[in-house]
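Please decode residue identities from the backbone states below.
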């Protein structure tokens, strides 16, 4: 027959089921806390990296941009300073004299540094420049712009529509050149200095691209001009320490 002290000791011993339940609860709590820390840390890191990259890109693109990233967690990027891919979208970029350019760009293998700037491994972009943006850029003598994909040419209304200038953008030696196809003022030729001034601004607008991007293809649509760009390894200077990466 068992002694009373042995019975009491057996009664106070916790059951294995209770121990397992406590362990599961502890693991769940730790998992939730860890997930909360990771989610919060990822959100903070994404904000910091986005702010850093945006500030560097916006200076060269001349407008506010929307930035998105690849699948790599930003917490890791915040530590190693490397971003697999950065996607940049802008609805109103200003390249050189051009205004109103819509840009969708991808920058690959970006290395971010607070002190020495950033490095882009390679890049590509699609630039859409609508007829309204072209008219606004050329301004002054040009009162209207229309384009035709069938001919690959743009028609510029000059001197309030009294004259018309037809031009065609083409790729030559890795840059966009504007070829004058016709220039007529009431059946007579438009003065050479007027034509050359308009063509010069047009050409500069299609050659002034930032971040090491260069034109590889140009196409005239019924709504304007579409340019494809590509770039290799490019350095972005640091922003004087104003933005911490």
């Amino acid at each position: 027959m068992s002694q009373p002290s042995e019975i009491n000791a057996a009664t106070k011993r916790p059951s294995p089921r209770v121990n397992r339940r406590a362990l599961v609860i502890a693991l769940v709590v730790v998992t939730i806390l860890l997930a909360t820390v990771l989610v919060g840390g990822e959100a903070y890191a994404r904000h910091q990296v986005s702010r850093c990259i945006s500030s560097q890109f916006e200076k060269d693109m001349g407008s506010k941009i929307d930035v998105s990233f690849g699948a790599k967690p930003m917490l890791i990027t915040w530590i190693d300073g490397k971003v697999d891919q950065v996607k940049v979208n802008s609805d109103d970029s200003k390249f050189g004299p051009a205004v109103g350019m819509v840009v969708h760009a991808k920058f690959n293998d970006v290395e971010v540094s607070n002190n020495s700037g950033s490095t882009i491994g390679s890049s590509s972009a699609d630039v859409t420049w609508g007829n309204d943006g072209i008219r606004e850029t050329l301004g002054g003598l040009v009162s209207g712009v229309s384009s035709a994909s069938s001919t690959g040419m743009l028609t510029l209304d000059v001197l309030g529509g009294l004259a018309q200038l037809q031009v065609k953008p083409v790729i030559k030696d890795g840059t966009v050149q504007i070829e004058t196809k016709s220039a007529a003022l009431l059946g007579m030729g438009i003065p050479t200095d007027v034509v050359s001034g308009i063509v010069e601004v047009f050409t500069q607008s299609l050659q002034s691209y930032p971040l090491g991007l260069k034109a590889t293809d140009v196409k005239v649509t019924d709504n304007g001009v579409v340019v494809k760009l590509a770039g290799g390894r490019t350095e972005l200077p640091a922003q004087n320490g104003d933005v911490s990466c």
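Observation: The mean pLDDT is 79.
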